[in-house]
Amino acid sequence: MSRATAGERSRAFLLVAPLLLFLAVFFLWPLGAMVTAAVSDEAVSTVMPRTAEAMADWDGAGLPPQPVQRALVEDLRAADDQQALGEAVRRLNSAVSGFRTLLTRTAGAARDAADPGAVSLPAVDPRWEQPRFWLALKAAVPRYTDRNLLAAVDLRRDADGAIVNADPEAAANRVIMARTFLVAATVTLACAAIGLPYAMLAAAATGWVRAALLMAVLLPLWTSLLVRTAAWFILLQNEGLINGALQAIGLIEEPLPLIFNRLGVVIAMTHVLLPFMVLPIYSVLLSVPRNLMPAAASMGAGPLRAFWHVLLPLSLPGLLSGSLLVFMVAIGYYITPALVGGAGDQMISSVIAFYATGTANWGMAGALGLILLTVTTLLYLVYGRLSRSPQLPGA
Question: Is the distance from CB of 176 to CB of 346 less than 8 angstroms?
């Protein structure tokens, strides 16, 4: 490699270095942290390293041998970080109820004993003779686990390690996931039904009319999402502008239930996400020659037939791009369903926020976020496949 070529490559690398640094700090690093939080489970292994090492050779049958029990006593005796011990206790108590009092009593006995090797766990608490506590401890000591990923889709591992459905009273993520995808699909269809004719009008117009139509689409993007959602909260309520206008002209006698339900969520999200549908379609329609529709009419095609066979196929790339954008943004919406929707309209982002800020369970928050990321990636791959298909006009 010549010195000139090496210098050109170095300068080219320096030009893209800020972009690479930006991607690493604001995309790869948070993504890695989310994946790590979803599969890591170090709460118990950090406090009980000797127990984790001793349990590696135990097959889980019956009660563990004496070295495992002695290692547990030594770990509890040496545990001086009460916050870390509390996290380990909460992790184990979530697996088997009763671990909180069991470990508290055992830790006190281990600290009071002059010889840790002489401590008999069954004598401290008879519950140590129940294999379910030891099996829960064995399942919690590995640093990496699929517990959060399984719980995100309402699955768990039973005592034999097989994957089974979670208990019905603790299984809600599948329902919320299905609701999230249903709402996102409904909003996408609504945006497509409104955005396609609107983009056609904007592309066909000229001068100040086109500018006004585009301004009407772009103006909401310059307003805060919270402000737009709060505006719909005011418009959709029983004493709001919409119900008031309908009652004033005599179309209804009682206010329509437009808020705190699925209809309100779809209306508000459709308004917020409509620009992401209109702009891709509009950009594609600008490249369509204006003489195609008159040419189709000159050959005997009516307006509907010309639209179906000429304009719609040519606008499909923009329609697919807009649908992908709207759906991917919609599945992660949080503010609009929280303000406008009811208790049965909350989406998976609300559950993620609950785990992240309400219970500080970053593992479950990361697992649910990883599922959304997987769905988004699959959608993008499908779109990439469709966009390269020779059967798609404009591909």
Answer: yes
